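Write out structure tokens for Tyrosine phenol-lyase.
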Amino acid sequence: MQTTNYPAEPYKIKVVEPIAMTTRQQRAQYLRDAGYNTFLINSEQCYIDLLTDSGTTAMSDKQWAGMMLGDEAYAGSKNFLHLQATVREYYGFKHIIPTHQGRGAENLLSRLCIKPGDVVPGNMYFTTTRAHQELNGAKFVDIIIDEAHDSQADVPFKGNVDLEKLQKLIDEVGPERIPYVCVAVTVNLAGGQPVSMENLRAVHALCAPLGIKVMFDATRCVENAYFIKTREPSCADKSIREILKEMMSYADGCTMSGKKDCLVNIGGFLCMNDDKLYQRASELVVLFEGMPSYGGLAGRDMEAMARGIKESVDFHYIEHRIAQCRYLADRLEAAGVPIVRPVGGHAVFLDARAFLDHIPQDEFPAQTLAAQLYLESGVRSMERGIVSAGRNKETGDHHRPKLELVRLTIPRRVYTYAHLDVVAQSCINLYARRREIGGMKMVYEPAFLRFFTARFEPLPVKTPAAPAERVTELETA
């Protein structure tokens, strides 16, 4: 009997949006049209859309009211001044450069700090972050703890930096070849796993005397703060706001996709404390984004983001946010569906390697599982495995991550527990007939970030239960 308490939604619904109800036959056609890539399915063809939590937030009434106060001046917008003051108050950084979204900030940081031959250590790669680093001549080196690559290792802070790995890398290449250490809080591709305050403090203490900057990917920093409060005893009595401010004190700056923990549909920023770096960033942003006081954003979007930052540190909001992930995970685990443990802050990650253990990694089990889940129920999810990992640019071979995952990403303040019941039952149904599922082959591969636009075709099912080859249901539905 389920005894876990899940907090009710700390909001009431003021506006509703109808969602699509499709047939299995329709979804099979939509999949074929999309090349079996869930990124290429239209949103109106999805019943429950768990592709991403990026920009899919439901904004509050106060945020929508703020949108009406947009100052669309080309320079010196009052909304920028509000955003600047809010970032300084809640994150503590001296300087902020707005960008159209997080990868705009990644682009600026990489161009400003990286020179060919540099090495950028990080606690597991993220797709766009590593792409920008590599395009500017750096090599990414993973320094996350080993447990992060084990889907079943039940460790409270699986996002932690392995300090011995970091020190070894510094000794090997020298601090002058490390422009910054990139620390994600939380770590998306490990399953939304947090980094402890103790670890953040230790990373800063190691790097500061050597002149190595620490730059956070702060996209889901509020979720990280919640995990610190609930899992790190020394911070149990602190508020989310206090924890967030202390976290940021151990960094020299950050990139931020405001489309996640800032609770908006578009926007981001780059922060730093270094005056000279800020001056260079102010010059470079004009080439790629816009003036330093808007960076590709309308004034109304900056106003919504400033208000979202304030709302994000409310304990009741973030408690419910994390509880929705835990609720879905608990339902799946109770039915024996393999997931990443412990559950993270923005999504539940299906362990596709264990779910479809009869499909080799080169036949894209996570991509296959995401396509099959959509066919089953209209639930759209995202592959986070060998397709997302891309290719080694030196050998041309696939990167083969140990984690082969499907991400069920929960948008903020959008779906109810009842929607998550549908998602859970769909996964459970699919798991019961997993041996009927065959892998896929890639028939189109773009040069960069292939998971966004690659296309696939089904392969025949080859299982002990099917001695004669037959095509997967995806092809015949």
